[in-house]
Amino acid sequence: MGVVTLKDVAKVAGVSYATVSRALSGSPEIGENTRKRIIKICEEMGYTPNSVARSMVMKRTNIIGLIVTSIDNPFMSEMIAHLEIYARQCGYNLMVCNSSYDPALEKEVFSLLVGRKVDGIIMIPVGSESYDVLKMLTVQIPTVFIGENMMDLPENYVSVDNTTGMQQATEYLYSLGHRNILYLGARDNSMTHKLRVDGYYNACNKLGIEPNVIRNSNPRSSIQVGYELAKAHFKKPFEETAILCAADTLAIGVIQAAYEKGIRIPEDLSLMGFDNITFSALPPISLTTVNQPKLELAVSALDMLLNRIKRPETPHTKTILSPSLVIRNSCRAI
Amino acid sequence: MGVVTLKDVAKVAGVSYATVSRALSGSPEIGENTRKRIIKICEEMGYTPNSVARSMVMKRTNIIGLIVTSIDNPFMSEMIAHLEIYARQCGYNLMVCNSSYDPALEKEVFSLLVGRKVDGIIMIPVGSESYDVLKMLTVQIPTVFIGENMMDLPENYVSVDNTTGMQQATEYLYSLGHRNILYLGARDNSMTHKLRVDGYYNACNKLGIEPNVIRNSNPRSSIQVGYELAKAHFKKPFEETAILCAADTLAIGVIQAAYEKGIRIPEDLSLMGFDNITFSALPPISLTTVNQPKLELAVSALDMLLNRIKRPETPHTKTILSPSLVIRNSCRAI
DNA sequence: AAAAAGACAGAAAACGTTTACGAAAATTTA
DNA sequence: TAAATTTTCGTAAACGTTTTCTGTCTTTTT
What we know:
2 copies of one chain form a homodimer. By secondary structure, chain A is of the alpha/beta class. Chain A is built from 12 helices and 12 strands. Chain A is elongated. In chain A, 49% of the residues are buried. Chain A binds a DNA duplex through helix 2 and helix 4.
């Protein structure tokens, strides 16, 4: 015996199945007594409406597609958690896909989600190299981007003010007396990273100190990458008194490399990150960093998307949230 | 102008829409030349099949529901990442839901996923208190559990051997000379945690040392909880030379509390965790722990589920994977 | 008491596919 | 070359809902 359907309860209730539908949807054109009777029968029979059939006729799935570069990155997973909870409160479910920092895969899962008829897509793009294809794809479906400032593109996005954040970080280190600050982890193919390093350059310019940047050719900003970058750097004697990392995960990698090398943080070297992930606050080295408001990013993104789903003709919007300095113990005054 | 549908391309191609469907589904009952012609037209028109309509008739969505207690727990998010990638390779997408350690919510999202007609559900249950309702629910849909040994329940699950893992951990500490080992974070309402502390008791019994357990009344095993538990414990002088935590996150909380109190790890106190999350390997305190094979857990769970979807009448199965000791630097010999 | 209005429920179309069935066309067989 | 196959494609039903349109039965109004 299969699943209970509308027709089944209609037969039992002795009404047409349109009536059952109305009883459950809260339609006003139905008698209060029959409604109660039908609802009771539904419960007794264990009827649950078939969302797929409903989506078919309503042309709406109440599913939001979510594309992230890597689920198991603390920054992302925190935001996914916020998104999932808020989305469910709004009556939506999340279909989560991993692009694994691969533009081709990113495009593939985007189309896959479009075929699945999700109502909208929230995505953390791989980087600026995929802007062109994304621009082609976003005409198919309401989309909002998180984290990556799409700049010249007219797309919807919500992001933290990366430039200001990094500028503040640099100025903070300067205020502690640091004049030789290394920026570690700049990436070429991401607008986010471009804006961050811009903030660093701005501050250097303004403060009259010499910028010094280690680029990251890898698309991911992982612990491993930070470790390798720092390890290579520490091989030769270094001049800087502080390292400013493009992400907390990179900074954690730097901590590892420094530890192996016997470099003490913050005694021998000050260190800063960006993102303020949960695991940046681990003693004894508790990372001074720049906070990204993850809950606000998630809520803004979903609000923006739902608004766009409701009114697709509305012009594209962007929201820039403010970062904030989180001072802990990985930097010292010199 | 709306989305391109089968009928649209059929009209353009001058064939019935059944023919178009056959051309795309790789059906053998269609001419090779017409197939090529139709596929070409589909591409030109930018046709993407409507998965919802397909699900309607095929009675299959190719969606797996995933219910976890908290997405932003490194152990979970690592496993989710593995699951998502493997599921997509198998032609499935993931609909992820957070139960937030709330049995009522767990039940709610389960029913929600059933209504969404997902093909199966993978879940990390909140704990043993929800076994009864889960047992009622799992008759509705193929389900497999991860991490929680359902014990007497005949349900499908895949889990690590928690008891053996904790026993090995205890024995390892014993082998380093520890005779007074505190177990921190036992929970009453989770079979997983019961089995872990059982492993500890077993070892104590076998080795002839006195067990000593701090229970955790909170359903979550978070950094915060570990911190609070340890902070309260460190208020009075303590006897133990080592603490064995029910989870890595708890251990990280212990590190925090110890640090604040000036207790050095491992010099003054040895510390072990369980799970081997990415962030357990952070210097200078790199946690000795018990590894859970996350990729294998994910793959086994999905294989088990897909098998059950294909053959629902198959008897329930369980898979117990082996844990392994990961020795780092948070324990010392005394 | 007749007419108008309103409340309620049924019939049927629609959503975009897949597929069983059947028919026509092409091919093979005798 | 006629018959028997096989290949190819069209027709139509089905999946489980929502919703428009219509009609009946009450209720209200005059």
